[in-house]
């Protein structure tokens, strides 16, 4: 079984579009949307949710007013400024370190599990999809990503799947790292812009840090062919293969608007090219 | 005044808006809070005058005092400490990437065997470009404490300037940390189901933080999807930027929109006046 992660560094380069292509083109796979902050893959794959789970993302503190004597001990130790002047815990700021509960002389701190979001096991016509919805302003997205990947792995094993295809989050932070650890291949989708190139170099750096092979796809390459060749040079100088270039296409935009994976939306020379590109990756 | 620019999803044109707005108005200051992928500098090429490291506090164990009781690892909610005790020796292992710097272990160690040490997790760059003050937060590769770097970048803002914040994508802690405390939040979106979905989430953030919001539709064309949502939720559509090959090309080369198409300067000045009126 092979785990493939689609990643981009920068948002909006076409990660989800490309994952949608893999969803249509590969057989016998489990799909995972690890962009838990702003999951979009379901907008293309239209899953039917089979199981829903709560995601417990740690603890959250609150103060029992009837016990609190407003001594200020909790406020003093809270490094996250989560306790306001009225001795209430501000949910957005509390990081669940629980240290306030150790110092409160009146045992007035209540610790509860923080339900940070939900995750789902769904069926789509392209296979099983594991996805999630992180609550607004919740942290621990890395932990949620790890959870999704655990379920994906278990499901893939029990179903005897050949591939796990992961739509990754943008950036290079904690959810990206959680998406990346232990995968067999990273496919970095980039675009020929100064930001695209800049962010691609950060993603490549991160992949090297984890020692994972990378292949690069340049999307919308004809928007700036000069920049595209600069990217090719930059990528190849770090010993990485650019395995494909996809032109800017109104058809692709239309498929996203229609909420359909591109390879299913239309059949033309571009779809054949993309299928060949996918053969090269897998 | 603080105006933040957020989007839910990446790649909708946040940086384009941030840069053009800052270049169009007087007395502006720009903070790039997209610390995982700071991109504003690619468009402004600011002259950097100061570089400051951002540190996170991690515990340092005094092996003379530590009796390997293991209490530190019990209190650590992030599993950043592990204590190994063998017959005659042992060790306290710190996993610095998991540490949130809550100081709990330092405070609660019964032997007072821990003291704070500092670990670099990122960088703040301060400079200027054509009279615009520029601040950038940058998280080191493989670090996770983005909110810490964002808070520090925001702390360098000058109060007498009009501050424009480029927020990171998403709706989790980094995005919230960036937007928090703003007087107004511009939500940049594009007219696709993806754009709408992420706009809904980003709008939830501004509601939760009690910040007034308005929408800019980028790559505008058939905008009914977004306009319906804005009408239903009474969010003003402040501006539409059409999809234009010239705009995409300028962006790809790192040329700010208002430099490539100077007629946009007036449009962004009007945008700023509209926002002032709403506040």
From TrEMBL, chain A:
An MF annotation (GO) of this entry: iron-sulfur cluster binding
Ranges for domain 4Fe-4S ferredoxin-type: 59-88, 90-114
InterPro entries the record matches: 4Fe4S_Fe-S-bd, 4Fe4S_Fe_S_CS, CobQ/CobB/MinD/ParA_Nub-bd_dom, P-loop_NTPase
Pfam families assigned to the protein according to its UniProt record, in alphabetical order: CbiA, Fer4
Keywords for the protein's UniProt record, in alphabetical order: Iron, Iron-sulfur, Metal-binding
Protein name, UniProt field: MinD superfamily P-loop ATPase
Species assigned in the record: Thermodesulfovibrio aggregans
Automatic annotation (TrEMBL), chain B:
Pfam families the UniProt entry points to: CbiA, Fer4
Annotated GO MF terms: iron-sulfur cluster binding; metal ion binding
InterPro entries associated with the record: 4Fe4S_Fe-S-bd, 4Fe4S_Fe_S_CS, CobQ/CobB/MinD/ParA_Nub-bd_dom, P-loop_NTPase
Domain 4Fe-4S ferredoxin-type: 57-86, 90-119
CDD domains: SIMIBI_bact_arch
Keyword terms of this UniProt record: Iron, Iron-sulfur, Metal-binding
Keyword Signal: no
Keyword DNA repair appears in the UniProt entry: no
Protein name: MinD superfamily P-loop ATPase
